[in-house]
Write a structure and sequence with these properties.
By secondary structure, this protein is mainly alpha-helical. It has nine helices and no strands.
């Protein structure tokens, strides 16, 4: 029993750290975008911010996929939430993160830096829209799995906080993703100050990633107490 408890704790810690890394990546993206908007070599910082955001998005996709894979329902239990979950959106996040890193590196090497970073911003926005409900679905599934195994109905304060954060972050992530797509399309279309539009898109994406990473960590932490008490 103690061995299985330590294994579960290690998995939860990995998810918490993954959420924190996402938040740090979002903050770094914001800082780089702000520096670029301040007029310090905007295209260079746009390329670097694209790489940083791509890495953070890659980590987020991997962390979320790992969390979903670890959710286990006891034999005989049923959860309608599982039927509505599709892993395609998280796979898209993982792939877009990897593609964004490649595009950012090519832009940093001077290969059509403007166009590549703008295309990456559009891809990032699309990935956020597609995965906007991922954290909320993770909360619902973990809540259902915990209740199925514990066969109890009580809730803890952390669960309510995680629920509010997860539901709120879904809408914000969708809006930020749509905004990034619009800004990226305008930049690709040749709008005036296209680099500025690209940096603003990255700024919005970075802020959203901070929120998503914090929400993911809160969601995982909210279930540590119920699981630990059963060990």
């Amino acid at each position: 029993m103690s061995m299985s408890f330590r294994e579960a704790t290690a998995q939860e810690n990995a998810a918490v750290y993954g959420g924190l890394v996402d938040a740090v990546g979002g903050i770094a993206t914001i800082v780089l975008a702000v520096v670029g908007l301040a007029g310090v070599n905007p295209q260079l910082f746009a390329s670097i911010a694209t790489i940083v955001f791509g890495v953070a998005l890659l980590i987020q996709g991997g962390t979320m996929l790992s969390e979903y894979a670890q959710i286990i329902f006891p034999t005989g239990s049923q959860s309608s939430s599982v039927e509505h979950f599709g892993g395609g959106s998280l796979s898209a996040v993982f792939l877009v993160g990897a593609a964004g890193i490649v595009l950012g590196v090519l832009a940093l090497l001077g290969i059509s830096p403007g166009a590549l970073t703008q295309i990456a911003a559009i891809a990032f926005g699309t990935a956020l829209v597609l995965s906007s409900n991922a954290v909320w679905q993770l909360y619902v599934l973990r809540h259902a799995a915990a209740k199925s195994e514990a066969a109890q109905s009580q809730s803890f304060g952390g669960e309510f906080l995680a629920s509010e954060m997860a539901s709120g972050s879904a809408g914000i992530q969708s809006l930020a993703g749509l905004g990034a797509i619009v800004l990226g399309v305008l930049a690709v279309a040749g709008a005036t100050n296209d680099v500025v539009l690209n940096l603003v898109a990255l700024l919005a994406l970075g802020a959203t990633l901070v929120l998503t990473g914090s929400t993911l960590s809160t969601t995982v932490l909210s279930f540590m107490r119920p699981w630990s008490s059963q060990a």
